[in-house]
Structures are given as structure tokens and as C-alpha cells.
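DsbA family protein: C-alpha cells wanted.
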Amino acid sequence: MSGKNKKAGTTGRKKNPGKAMVLYTTALVLLLVALFFINQANKDGTQDLTRVDVQPSIADQPVIGSEDAKVTLIEFGDYKCPSCKKWSQDVYPVLKAEYIDTGKMKLAFVNTLFHGDESELGALAGEAVFSQNKDAFWVFNEAMFNAQPSANHDGLWITEEKIAELATTITPQIDIEKLKNDLSNRTTLPQVQVDNALVEKYRINQTPTLMINGITIANPFDIESIKSVIDKELGV
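Answer:
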């Protein structure tokens, strides 16, 4: 066998710093790629979804859609919240046309009082309208969000006078004098307190917050993510 003998004092192959650097760089690139795809999954709404053990009760809440719908979407909303207005005008119509009107999903509205006295007054008004006519509530709900000023939503605008004015424009018509009395006497405060208890129990900290069959949606304006969750719940 031909070959050169190892020199005295050597015990193996010399280390190759260049090769070690290549391996380190490759590992770093693979890690960054993995993090990228995890981040993209989160953005696309395909991340693991956490469902609460018991979803909020919608008993005696305003609900639109088929009672037998397989999917329930709960909107925690506030008439003083500009994001709620945007959601009501931009996202809700899309979901209504595709899922609510087709009997696949129902939607419940839970008052969320994050903007003080005006939020409470708006909630009292919505519950008062709902107590008179369940269908009228959804027309009033839309009218309230449309009436929210775009320039200065923090300014005073939810007043008993404004509520009465809006109520006269909706159909089905409601008893305006009864509505005024309900507001003056805070007749529907118990219903509003039920909503507030749900907000506290489920630790709602932003409006709008959406829960689909007990699953909280990270971004209420990501329509594709919302539809993905709904379709998954429908078994599509």
C-alpha cells in the first residue's frame, strides 16, 4: 500500500473554519425561513386557533340570521368606536351577503362600553329599540354607526335627542315616546349590564372583537381570514 505516513505530533484532520462558517450560515438561513413561514401563516389566519371552552351566551341578544345556522359570530361593538363603524360598513355587508343571508351563519351584537357615558347611552337605546321590535334593532344599529361623525367621533354626538331623531327614520317604526321614557328611566340597564358582564368574563379589550363559534379573530378586518375560519366551521 502506497501513501505518506502522518507526521509525528498530528492526531487527525485539521479543522476547516470555512466549512464551519458555511454550516452556521446555512442553519441561520433555515431558521429565518422557518420563522418567515410561521409569520405568514399567522397573517393568513392559518395558525392554530384557540376556542374558548364555553362560548358567550347569545340568549336575549339581538341576533340576525337563521336560528339553526351552524356558525355563530358574536360582535363586541361600541357605537362610539370608529373601527366598529368601519367594520359595520366594510366587512359586515360582505359577511351578510355570503353567510348570513344564505342561512350559514347568524350574528349577535354585544354592547361594549369602552367610551364612557355615550357608549352606555347608545347601548341603552339599542336595547330599548330591540325590546320593541327585534327587526328594527338592526336598522337602528346601522343608523347609529352611519351617524357617527367621521371627523370627530370623540365629540359629543350620542344624545337622547339624536337617538330619537334617528329612531324616527327607521322601519319598522317604533314608539318614540316609549323610547324616550326608556332612556330617561334607564329601563334597559339590566340588559346592558349582562353585556358588560360578558365583556369582562371573556376579557374583551378591543372593539370590534369577533368570536366565531368561540374562536377570537385576531384581525376583524382580515376578511379572508374570517372567511377561512367560517368555512372551516362549516366543514367546507
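The chain has two domains: 19-48, 63-234. The chain is about 50% helix and 10% strand.

Cheers.
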